[in-house]
Amino acid sequence: MSHAGDLLFLLCSIQPSMNQFGATKWIDESRQGTALQPEEEASATSSRKCYIESYGCQMNFNDSEIVAAILKEQGYGLTTDAAQADLVLINTCAIREKAEQTVRKRLQEFKSLKKNKADMLVGVLGCMAERLRHRLLEEEKLVDLVVGPDAYRSLPALIAEAESGQKAVNVLLSREETYADISPVRLNSNGVTAFVSIMRGCNNMCTFCVVPFTRGRERSRSPQSILRECEELFEQGYREVTLLGQNVDSYYWIDPQTQQATTFAQLLEMVAQINPWLRVRFSTSHPKDITDEVLYTMARYPNICKYIHLPVQSGSTRILQLMNRTYTREGYLKKVERIREILPDCGLSTDIIAGFCTETEADHQETLSLMDICEYDMAYMFMYSERPGTLAARRYKDDVPQEVKKRRLQEIVEKERTLALKNMQKEVGKVRTVLIEGPSKRSDQDFCGRTDQNKMVVFPKKHYRKGQYVNVHITGCTAATLLGEVVEETIPEMVT
Ligand code: SAM
Ligand code: SF4
Question: Which residues bind [4Fe-4S] cluster 2 (predicted)?
Fold first, then answer.
């Protein structure tokens, strides 16, 4: 049994971030702390069992699937019961302090499991590895191995070292590693939608963010390996891929033979051309980098979903400068205007941080007014949490009192709820194409799937199938879900 239920309760009660949609993408709170789930529990043929628990953003969950692929080669089967495992791995997130605290608590629990199973190995993977390796490994003796996000290929050797009683560590960051040749084992999957990492790391230096320190320099994966993975997914029955990167618009790959460059807009087009029945999404776009070329490519292909996640972080130019986001309020609003011009029916979501260093009431009001102008469909909303080693931690004082941060976050959440509901209500009466993802959570008589604009729709199952596109007449809504009836099956057209 995974402790997902307990952790969900813990995360909800902490409320480090909030969002409206049950099926959003980047940081899905309902998935935090869940164990990677095998199609069937590790069978008798697997000589050893591994338990992998994951935290953080979608890229981290994807990394866990790469780890599962590497371990499968070594004869490990997966289990969702940590007590049964020979190897317990926790793939960590360092974005906010609370995530780190949760991981430490889990490691204490694994330590007590080890008392009954002396040869069980416990390892920490991912973003917390570099910063906490000394404490976790040597001081608190909580774990046997510590492996950074670019060192997963060395896992078999590290496990062997740990088995021989040594402390096994590899937290080296790489300028090249993209795991391009490893096909992730897709386990907690609905068989219809999949995530594909197209790049790793980040070269931006947003002052609040640990990612450049924990995941290293930005590097892009070859278009050939991305296309191969997407084609394979399509052949396996998947009908939607989401291309993932911290800043997808700076995707840039140079062919070592021909010196020819591939940009994100070109990659997007290549993936869209795989098959008109394959929907394409992407995340995350950086407001300073998203280009007209990307927007026009989206407009040309009906199978590129009209939905953009464009994190703003704050509506105040002064705060954006302190965050080193390299755009102003006006610059951001111009990008949004451009999106509305080129893609009039595009869904828009964002990330917002409440209570960054020196944020005044006037700055906060600017965030609220920007939300009104952008009319977001959805937002991930966070209280600022100082992260050791970041530029903000070194340069600025975390001086907004916790109570004020909380109240501002609440106001941002209320604003988001109002905007989201308004946007959902606008959908009522329209007919939208929906890709069926599977049974609805509430009733096995209903299916659920998302519109192009990433809105979840629930409708009666009838004779339809998972993975099928249907046109749904929207008849009602809540703030998070649209309700409807299928009016016809649909065939998307490919524009050349
Ligand atoms: N690369 C993406 C971008 O630039 O928009 C976002 C990556 S980050 C994993 C996801 C979100 O976490 C950020 O957009 C930000 O809102 C939030 N975040 C990052 N560091 C944070 C911090 N120290 N405190 C609160 N929220 C933070
Ligand atoms: Fe962090 Fe900024 Fe890079 Fe996003 S773009 S991962 S917020 S440094």
Answer: 202, 206, 209
Q: Is residue 4 part of a domain?
A: no
User: Which residues constitute the domain of residue 452?
Assistant: 430-486
Residue 37: pLDDT band (50, 70, 90) is low
Cβ distance 321 to 374 under 8 Å?
no
For residues 23 and 456, the answer to whether their CB atoms sit within 8 Å is yes
Whether residues 436 and 376 fall in one domain? no
Q: Is 204 in the pocket of ligand 2 (CB under 6 A)?
A: yes
Beta strands 87-92; 145-147: pairing state? unpaired
183 within a domain of the structure (yes/no): no
Q: Which atom of ligand 2 is nearest to the CA of 210?
A: 1
Q: Do residues 406 and 440 both lie within one domain?
A: no
User: Which of ligand 2's atoms lies nearest the C-alpha of 202?
Assistant: 3
pLDDT digits (tens, 9 = 90+) for 50-85: 999 999 888 899 999 999 999 999 999 999 999 999
Looking at the structure, do residues 278 and 397 belong to the same domain, yes or no? yes
Are 374 and 423 spatial neighbours (Cβ–Cβ below 8 Å)?
A: no
- pTM of the predicted protein model: 0.90
pLDDT of residue 7 exceeding 60, the answer is no
Helix (H) / strand (E) element for 133: namely helix 129-133
Could you give the 3-state DSSP secondary structure of residue 312? Answer: coil
Predicted local confidence at residue 101, as pLDDT = 84
DSSP state of 26: S
Ligand 2: centre distance to CA 336 (Å): 19
Confirm or reject: Cβ of 313 under 6 Å from ligand 2. Answer: no
Helix (H, G, I), strand (E, B) or coil at 268: helix
Q: What is the pLDDT of residue 118?
A: 84
> Which secondary structure element, helix H or strand E, spans residue 330, and what is its range?
helix 329-342
Nearest-ligand number for the alpha carbon of 204: 2
Q: What angle do CA 179, 110, 13 make, to 5 degrees?
A: 90
Give the ligand 1 atom nearest the CA of 385.
24
Q: Please report, for the domain that includes residue 66, its CATH number.
A: 3.40.50.12160
Regarding the beta carbon of 351 and ligand 1, being less than 6 Å apart is answered yes
CA–centroid distance, residue 487 to ligand 2 (Å): 42
Report residue 42 as tokens. Answer: 């590790």
